[in-house]
Amino acid sequence: xxxxxxxxxxxxxxxxxxxxxxxxxxxxxxxxxxxxxxxxxxxxxxxxxxxxxxxxxxxxxxxxxxxxxxxxxxxxxxxxxxxxxxxxxxxxxxxxxxxxxxxxxxxxxxxxxxxxxxxxxxxxxxxxxxxxxxxxxxxxxxxxxxxxxxxxxxxxxxxxxxxxxxxxxxxxxxxxxxxxxxxxxxxxxxxxxxxxxxxxxxxxxxxxxxxxxxxxxxxxxxxxxxxxxxxxxxxxxxxxxxxxxxxxxxxxx
Length: 253
Prior knowledge:
This protein is 73% helix and 2% strand.
């Protein structure tokens, strides 16, 4: 289906993909349902990692050009536990797969894939973590023990790909306009949460006026951290150098 020259809905070969991804993502949120101790530890791991990401990219967050993008990536795409959103999206995924602009729908599928792989990796680190207190050293040890290097590489790749898609959408005024026009119908149809998610992502990338540098810096830093972690480094995140660049001390662990 086309509207004003824009393809709507998933192509035939990908119909049903969004629903399958959403269902798997929702199931993973209960991975430790029968192990309350590990469930609590998982929450701590996810919160620690979200804070780590913000520390690693504090200079980008401090730049008005990139602030919204940092918050979108590390607060929206990673971390948290949006169970209500999952449930709502599963109910209306059929309508979304038919009515959303195809490129916006693809961006959403990529975002859900990123959540799935992040949840799987978080669970692996949670199982490998020793003790209740999380430090950089203990996290590094658990990260290496958990393994899954190919999945770590895919996690970084998906983050970059999502950013590239959102950046391409904001450069296409007709698709951007259709997403905005869908605000009322989306809320009426029951997928207002998704609509708001897409709009926040697009607003963040529109504010950058070009995402190439932002995506390159995030990719390089996260790849460097991954290589150092698998290489045995106990202090792989370079917080001190980040703080020096900003001209102030980094926050304590």
